[in-house]
Amino acid sequence: MFTTVSSHACRHGQGKLLLRLLVLKNARLCNSNSSIGKGIRSYATEHAHHEARIENIRNIGIIAHVDAGKTTTTERMLYHSGRTRHIGNVDHGNTTTDFLPMERERGITIQSAAVTFQWPPKSVLPNGQESKTINLIDTPGHQDFRYEVDRCLPILDGAVCIMDGVKGVETHTERVWQSAHLSNIPRLLYVNKLDRDGASFKRAVQEAAARLKTWPLLCQIPWWQKDEFVGVIDVIHEVGLRFSKNSGAMTVVPKETLATHNPALKNEMEKARLQLIDKLSDQDEGIMEEYLERDINVSSGTIKKAIRRLIIDGEAKFTPVFAGSSLTNIGVQPLLEAVVDYLPNPSERPELRLITGSKTVTFSEFMETAPKKKGAPHQKPEPVLSVSHVFKVVDSGARGLMSWVRTYHGSLSRSSHMWNSNMNVFEKPQNIMHVSAKDYHDIPTLPTGHIGAMTGLKQARTGDTLLTFPGHQAQAPEAYRSVRIKAPETPPAVAFISIEPYTKTAGDKIVDALQRLSREDPSIRWHKDERSEQLILSGMGLLHLEIAQDRLLTHYKIEKETAIWGDIEVEYSECLFAPTRPHHHEYDRALRGVAGRAACTVLLEPLEACHHDTLLESSIERDGNVIHVSIPLPEDTDELPFDTETVRQQLFNGAIAGLSRGPRRSAPVRKCHVHITFDPEKDWSKNSTGGHITNAALFAVRAALKEAHENAQVGILEPFTNFTIHCPEEASHAIQHDISSARGGQVMEVRKPEEDDYSGSVDGQGGERIDLTRVYVPPDPYEGVQSLRDEGKKMSGSVRMLHIMGKAPLKEMMKYDGHLRSMTGGRHTLTLDPGEFELVTGPREKALALEG
Ligand code: GDP
Ligand code: MG
């Protein structure tokens, strides 16, 4: 039915593009006929991976709320690139990236998985043209695994944020969007699941503008045939892209054919293109000139370049929007084109920032000002050969602990003698590997801008920085010893489970497994309760701890019968009501046979919002506390006989240890502002070890907390969660009543989804107002008959649904889903999103006291 390249399209300079689309259309065919082995094809990609030039690399992440279709989209990308021969399905538990048994059983992504593939597939490119190598990380979408997203995002150069076309912007979408924002990651938006009943591209785009606070640049609009979603309209190139639902084979439909068969759609395409050009020409001089010169026929190349320029800073003032349905194979190839076209390669990203002492500087600033060799101030700075970042540590079983690394400067090889500036040790990898889902392949080097894994690093943890220097020194050059890339913050734990081993042998085995588990996932923490001797494992929520427990039993082979496993409970914490007096502590006992003496003064006060804003350079924020250290210079000296950075770190460590057990319930102390003043004059002798300094801070903090408790100035905090309940109207009163009277929660808003109002404006990410009434979106297919449909629904007894939003204690909500089921007959969805720690008062405090 459809013809292909038309002379008309060629006249508009689009022949080349159409040719490329046609080539892609055939890509799937070529790949499925190829004879390379089953499953993931490795050789060609492995090779291409480490040989790829930096301009040809895209390190991207797929981010979204749980169930938006991240894993499904990743799976389709692998298939269409020719990387896999079979399309895996989340619902059948056979996708490439969800390969852990737990993920396959539950149908959810728990750990982020990396895959690499080429786009466009090499087999379809003309001679001499190179494919781009896409390193893609599929991330989990459940809020309990948000640390997993947070540690991967900073090492990526771009992200595709997926929205469910029915559900729109969900709570975790907003959160990961914000995380991407903090790392300035350029983003694309992909509205998925448009095949589903109730999908609305219009609403999804409006919500993106209103809630993600970005101006949507519609590069595609959906192609509906009556009510059925059949393809997408490429607004920039003015063609229709239609897909075969089974194979995903793509047919390019020229504008003229659209004009004949679907004139309304062709008109909408022209309108969308004009809207896009209009918006771009406000921002981009190149477009403006071409627009004025050539009227509406701005070339697709010019439009694409303008979009690229607008998003590359990662501020997300504007975001290109694409449409599709990954499950039914619609829109995946053009989305891959967009990744290649719009997202930056590693060399186009802002320069790496390094923390050196109490300052943050760019890599080149650092190299310019890097201290010269001692005694030779006019020499060039000592060179640094490579800088890389460990963003994840995984226990892979047979191969042992594997450290995932991204290189920023220089390259790493197996003989690299790497300085870990967080752990202050040199390490050497055994092997360097390229990772693709559960497969690993040895590679000789990891060049700049690449992502890989290493075995053999004994100490590296998530967030550590690795540096290499010329020669084989025994010690890192002084200037670089403590240079670091910012590590991701671990959010405070909100829930825990106790484990009580029956025997010492069982206890030792569990402790070993806990150590390894928390090294893999630093958002899992553990300690031994001094009084009960129980092992306490804490984490980000019910699901997180269930999965942790599962991993202990299945991966670390702990036998369940060797210990008593408690229920999952919420983690309380403690806080101060008023500032304490300054507490001075002098620690002068021998430590491991070494005599020494160190002293400091500590003052604690409740943390106010202003403390976050005025974080001084020598402050750190950890587990909800801000710790500030000052090291005064003694009179009559202008040089301190010790390394201030090391002492600062030791004092921080002491304070962190002191805050980890509060005086009321031995729960961690939060929302506390700690001032520590070191006392260097106090006989600080060379013999004093770091332990003396750490202990001086630890005991001073403990003494201050103890006194505050005696003065009744310590309160209990409990984690709250923000909830959204989507439920039938008839159940909503009972639910609201239950939450506010029996659960200690608060309902903030109840609304009908169809009452969403997009007539106002919002503050955009870039600081400008976004007037929602000016955001262009095409109408949904059933819009004209919406009211008829609604009537129909009512008559056929369809249920009216409501959203109830608010906050409540996590303790009450952790298992609320089951309770809701009895109130709604299962016709609800409950979404929880992390809230703040809030003070326990009144009856809840009394009940807690009774629990002990
Ligand atoms: P993730 O949590 O974001 O990784 O989402 P998944 O890829 O695991 O998908 C969640 C569910 O949505 C699965 O049941 C998928 O089959 C389904 N799904 C994903 N994409 C689509 C789509 O385009 N259309 C429809 N109807 N379902 C989809
Ligand atoms: Mg997933």
TrEMBL record:
Superkingdom assignment: Eukaryota
Which species is this UniProt entry from?
Answer: Podospora pseudocomata
Domain Tr-type G: residue ranges: 55-347
Q: What is this protein called?
A: Ribosome-releasing factor 2, mitochondrial
- Keyword terms: GTP-binding, Nucleotide-binding, Protein biosynthesis
Starting at the broadest rank, the lineage of the source organism is:
Eukaryota, Fungi, Dikarya, Ascomycota, Pezizomycotina
The cross-references to Pfam families, in alphabetical order and at most eight, read: EFG_III, GTP_EFTU
